[in-house]
Amino acid sequence: MPQTRSRSRSKAADTRADHDDGPEHRANGSTTRRSRSPSSSSSPVRSPLYHPRYAPTGPAALTSIALQALFLGAVLSGALLFSLQLAFSRNPLWRLPFFVATCTLFHFLEFWCTARWNPAMADRSSFLIVGNGAAQGCAYLVALVEVAVRELVKGKGWWSGKWEGVFIIVPNGTVTVIGMGLIVLGQMARSMAMREAGASFNHLAVQYYKREDHILVTSGIFSWVRHPSYFGFFYWALGTQLVLGNSFSFLAYTLVLWRFFSHRVMHEERYLISFFGDDYRNYRERTPTWIPLVG
Predict the structure, then answer these.
(1) Residue 276 neighbours by CB distance under 10 Å
(2) How do the domains of the chain map onto residue ranges?
(3) I need a labelling partner for 131 at 20 to 30 A (CA). Which of 31, 43, 94, 115 fits?
(4) Spans of biased composition, class Basic and acidic residues (predicted)?
(5) What residue spans of the chain are helical by DSSP H?
(6) Which residues neighbour 99 within 8 Å (Cβ) at sequence distance 6 or greater?
C-alpha cells in the first residue's frame, strides 16, 4: 500500500542518514563532526610552490614575463621576415629590420640565459628591455636614423660624391660579413659567460658585498677573457654598426662603450680584489680583457 511504502522509505532514509556523509555521524555511541573539505572553504587555496615574487605585482611576475616574451617573439619573427624580403629584392634597407631582429634576440637571450643558469635571479627585468634606461633606447634610435637617412639621401645633392667617401663606411659584402661575425662572436661570448658564471652573474651594478655563493670563476671562457660578458657586448654592438654601415654610430658606440667599460672594470676590480685577494690579482695578470686599453 502507498502509505506502508512511504513509511518504509522514510525508515530506510533515516537509517542511511545515520551512516551517510553529513556534518555529524554517530560512532561508538559518540557524535563526531566531519571536517570541512578545502573546496568548501571561503579562503583561497595556495599551492605550496606559490611565492609572492611571482604574483602579478612581484618582481618576477609571470604575467609580465609572458607578455615580454610574446612581444619579443612577435618582433623577432616579423623583423626577420621583413629583412629577408628586402634583402632578396636587393633593397639596402634590409639592414633596418635586421638590426631590430638582432637586438630583439639579444634581449631574449639575456632572460633565457639568466633563467637557465641563474634562475634565482631571473625576473621581469632580466630581459634588459628598459634596464639600461633611456641611453639604450637613444643608442638604438640613433643607429636606425643614421642608416635610414643615409640610404634615403644617398647620391642626392650635397651628400653625393666626396662626402659619401669621407663619412660613410661602405656597407659592402666584406664589411657586412665582418659585422655579422662580430655579432655572433659577441653574443656567444656573453651567453657563455652567463653560463659559466652561473649564480655569480647578475645584471645589477657593481657588487659591493661578497655574497655567500659568490665565487671567483676562472674556468671556461673566463680562462681566455677577463670580463667576457663586457667583451661580448662591446664587440656585439660594434658588429651591429658594421652591418648597418654606420660611420657616426660606429664611432659613437666605440667611444661610449669604451668609456663605460673602462670605468666599470676599474671600479669593479677594486671590490673583486677585496673579495678574493691575490687569487684575483694573479688572474688579472694572466688574463686580458681583449677590449683595447681596458684593464
Answers:
(1) 17
(2) 55-130, 133-294
(3) 94
(4) 11-27
(5) 2-19, 62-88, 95-117, 133-153, 162-167, 173-197, 228-244, 247-276, 278-286
(6) 140, 143, 144, 147, 240, 243, 244
pLDDT digits (tens, 9 = 90+) for 186-201: 999 999 999 999 988 8
How many whole angstroms separate alpha carbon 103 and alpha carbon 253?
Answer: 15
Q: Nearest Cα to 191, choosing from 149, 171, 221?
A: 221
Whether residue 213 contacts residue 220, with contact meaning beta carbons closer than 8 Å, is answered with no
Confidence (pTM): 0.80
Would you give the DSSP letter of residue 169?
-
And the C-alpha cell for 248?
657616426
Amino acid at 105: L
Task: At 286, list the grid cell.
Answer: 694572466
Name the DSSP letter for residue 29.
T
DSSP 200-231: G--SSS---S--TT-----SGGGGT-SSHHHH
Question: Class of 133-294 per CATH?
Answer: mainly alpha
- Of 171, 283, 289, 279, nearest to 230 (Cα)? 289
Look at residues 274, 162, 287, 156 and name the one whose alpha carbon lies nearest to residue 230.
Answer: 287
CB atoms within 10 A of CB 58: 15
Q: How many CB atoms lie within 10 A of CB 251?
A: 12
Answer yes or no: are the C-beta atoms of 222 and 162 closer than 8 Å. Answer: no
How far, in whole angstroms, is CA 68 from its chain's centroid?
A: 10
CA distance 187 to 103: 11
Take residue 97 and report the three cell numbers written for it. 629590420
Tell me if residue 44 falls in helix, strand or coil.
coil
What value, to the nearest 5°, has the Cα angle with vertex 194 and ends 189 and 198? 150
Residue with cell 671562457: 221
User: What cell does 28 get?
Assistant: 561508538
- Provide the residue count of the chain: 295
Dump pLDDT digits (tens) for 67-102: 999 999 999 999 999 999 999 999 999 999 999 999
The whole-number pLDDT of residue 52 equals 85
